[in-house]
Input
Amino acid sequence: MEAKDLSLRFWELLRDASVNTEFMMTEFSSRNKLSRLQGRALLQIYIQEHVRLSDLAEIMGMNPGNLSRVCQSLERESLLQRERSTEDRRVWTISLTEKGQKVIREIVNSIEDSFKKFLQDHTAEELDQLVRLWTDYNHYFSQARLGRHAAKESEALS
Output
């Protein structure tokens, strides 16, 4: 396959993976009366454990102000808690409450159940290769994104 065709095919696969992931997240979240965005936030907080709001916003590719509103709604539902950092009083860390952990366990179990068939249909070597290639892809484009960000900052300082 030529490079142009390969890059277009890869782009289609990424789009499809994104659409499928968002569909699953919407389905799993709605079972717990959450929006897809609330479900994504809870999942990221679960993965990161105690995380600063600014770091969570960067991970999720969101504006911190918008994410703060999402977190406030989750806090009102007693699914997460915000605590001031002991090192820097300006910084808030976010973690799941017991109720939030219960909800996210249901979502994680649903995600695991949805992957079981896929995992059973592939060898350990195939799955290792998939993870290795996906990791390489993410690393490559993360470095490219960071490079563009640094160039923009440098340009702004000029």
Summary: The chain has a mean pLDDT of 87. The beta strands are 51-52, 80-84, 92-96.
